[in-house]
Amino acid sequence: MTAQQAQRLVVDPLDAKPESLAANALDAAREIQRLRWQCRRGMLELDLLLNQFLEQGYAELDPAGRADFERLLGYQDQILQDWLIGQAVPADPALSGLVVLIQGCLLEAARP
User: Fold this and answer.
1) Is the pTM of this model over 0.85?
2) CB 64: neighbour CB atoms within 10 A?
3) Element (H, E) at 53
4) What is the rounded distance in angstroms from the CA atom of residue 76 to the CA atom of residue 83?
5) Which of 54, 55, 74, 89 is the most buried (most CB within 10 A)?
């Protein structure tokens, strides 16, 4: 998803007409469904981690962060696993920050 596409997901409800709000909600739901499918991996652990972040943290990302999340999903499972369990760190600072957010989401979910 490009930054321009991600910006379409964010609409100020005071500036929008009801028709555009409904269309935007439909677009957002389709986007989440598409990302949910991309979060399905060959490793169950990654499925759980990525889907949990999609449900709990994705909505808080700005358009650039959403584009970074989609880019993150393009990496191979073994690389993602190494990043998410802390065995390695992405060289890209944006992806590194996103990995920290995903890890933080996991820690919050694990707290009683």
Assistant:
1) no
2) 12
3) helix 44-56
4) 11
5) 54
Indicate left, alpha or beta for 44 from its phi (over 0: left) and psi (-120 to 50: alpha).
alpha
CB of 41 within 8 A of CB of 85?
A: no
Question: What does R_g of the chain's alpha carbons equal in angstroms?
Answer: 15
HSE-CB for 7 with a 13 A CA cutoff:
3
Q: Are 66 and 27 in contact (CB under 8 A)?
A: no
Residue holding tokens 């009683």? Answer: 112
How far is the C-alpha of 85 from the C-alpha of 11, rounded, in Å? Answer: 35
Q: Which amino acid is at 52?
A: Q
pLDDT in tens, 42-94: 888 888 889 999 888 898 999 999 999 999 999 999 999 999 999 999 999 99
